[in-house]
Write a structure and sequence with these properties.
The protein has about 240 residues and is α+β, with helices and mostly antiparallel strands. Among the domains are: about 100 residues, GrpE nucleotide exchange factor, coiled-coil domain (Hemagglutinin Ectodomain, Chain B, Alpha-Beta Complex), CATH 3.90.20; about 60 residues, Head domain of nucleotide exchange factor GrpE (Nucleotide Exchange Factor Grpe, Chain A, domain 2, Roll). About 70% of the residues lie in helices and about 10% in strands. The strands form two sheets. A three-stranded antiparallel sheet has the order 1-4-5. It has a three-stranded mixed sheet with strand order 2-6-3, with no helix packed on it. Strand 4 and strand 5 form a beta hairpin. About 5% of the residues have low confidence.
Amino acid sequence: MSKHRKNDKTELEKMLERKLAEEKEAASGNTVSHEDNETVVENKEAADEKEAQDAATLAQQLAERAAECEQLKDQLLRVRADFDNYRKRMLREMDQLRQTASANLVRALLPALDNLERALAHASVEDGFVEGVGMVFKQFQEALASEGLEPIPALHEVFDPNVHDALATVPSETVESGRIVEEYERGYRLRDLVVRPARVIVSSGVPETTECSDEPENETANINNTTEQDMETQKSEEEQ
């Protein structure tokens, strides 16, 4: 009987031991689980902090790249503007060179044009040669006009020192002062360039009339009247 109780006690002790072991194991498991949770939280916080740092770094790099892009864009616009200005300047210079070359050629041909015009002005109408010269002169004028050559208006125009060359000034009763009364040599303009100014004579206006010529006659008349009066007075005194 006692032996059986001893065995029962042993079984009871075993059950208690198992129960204690389970509780101990459970307590140990809870401790490990709590530690694991803390580790997970710490790891997550570290990961979040690293992610925030990476995001800040990427944002800074993106801002730097954007600034570099703006700088490169500004440089590109400046280079494009400089090139456009250079292209326009070169076109202007080329146009000026062409215009200068054309002006030099026209300036060299103008004496021949003047001679043809003078020959036609003094040629006899009956001469058959005049018609041929007139055709040549007309073709000459049309060819130069197609290049932009045009005569400068002169006669009765207001004198302009930019396009006119005054040879002299003369009084005129019909043309007001400052206007051209005679064109000595025709001037020409090639587009905006004066190839040869018109050589002209300018009116100085109506001549001023003075009474200087009448004054000697008046003075002479006064002298004669005074002399006659003196002679009459002297004659009266002698008679008395």
